[in-house]
Amino acid sequence: MKSVLENRPALAAEVEKVAEVAGYLWQKGWAERNGGNITVNITEYVDDEIKALPAISEVFPIGTTLPYLKGCYFYCKGTNMRMRDLARRPMENGSIIRILEDCASYVIIADNHVKPTSELPSHLSVHNYLIGKGSPYKASVHTHPIELVAMSHNPKYLEKDVVTKLLWSMIPETKAFCPRGLGIVPYTLPGSVELADATIAELDDYDVVMWEKHGIFAVDCDVMQAFDQIDVLNKSALIYIASKSMGFEPEGMSEEQMREMSVAFNLPK
């Protein structure tokens, strides 16, 4: 069967980025079994020939109405699929879907009959929010970074911006590359509408959100940039935990040092 990616280098490059990130998530130990999800808005890469493709699945309800997604196309990791397999064969372990005219359902159009992640309604709700606010962000990544999830088990890190300021202080690059910090969502049932709503509320102020005792959800212009934000934040968590394991509380950058860096790099204060 001919792949929809053939002779479409821009679309193929976006899917290849997803595959590359999936490999990183597996290598880091952040994607056990079928853990984690990736969804990318690929509408800008869809040509008339793809738009004319018939559905290869039944019509699936999203479970909510998302008006800004009418006629949009997404590449999605498949349900019960493993990141390590997606890294090697992205179109066998993921699929391209079309949002239908009612904005409340979708069909699979390529390449196989791989139903998207069970958390698709949450991801699509976020994309609907991003389009609605005019954001350039097209990618969402959910994964389970070990050190950040471990920190979420301590109630003191769940207070607003406590963990953000701690992680920013560990190494200058963290604030430079994650200038909006880390939002917090208290434990909520995975895949639920409540989790999606709570995440969207945090995305007003943050690009990366920590789900208590569960994982991280990040959005950005493409999947690689979303991954980079998570990677940088988790590096800071590793530095903090390494210091603690050596028997001392890390000093961290001072408020003055962080303000100085914010001015020098034109970052939010």
Give an overview in words.
The protein has 269 residues and is α+β, with helices and mostly antiparallel strands. The protein contains ten helices and nine strands. A nine-stranded mixed β-sheet has the order 2-5-4-3-1-6-9-8-7, with helices on both faces.
In short:
With 269 residues, the protein is of the alpha+beta class.
Which descriptors would you attach to this protein?
269 residues; alpha+beta; L-fuculose-1-phosphate Aldolase; 9-stranded mixed sheet; elongated
| Fraction in beta strands | 15-25%
Total domain units: 1
Low-pLDDT runs? none
The CATH homology group name? Class II aldolase/adducin N-terminal domain
Query: Going across the major beta sheet, what is the strand order?
Result: 2-5-4-3-1-6-9-8-7
SSE topology:
Layout: H1 9-27, E1 37-41, H2 48-51, E2 60-61, E3 73-77, H3 83-88, E4 94-99, E5 105-110, H4 120-132, E6 139-143, H5 146-151, H6 162-170, H7 172-177, E7 182-185, H8 193-202, E8 208-211, E9 215-220, H9 223-245, H10 255-264
Parallel strand pairs: 7-8
Antiparallel strand pairs: 1-3, 1-6, 2-5, 3-4, 4-5, 6-9, 8-9
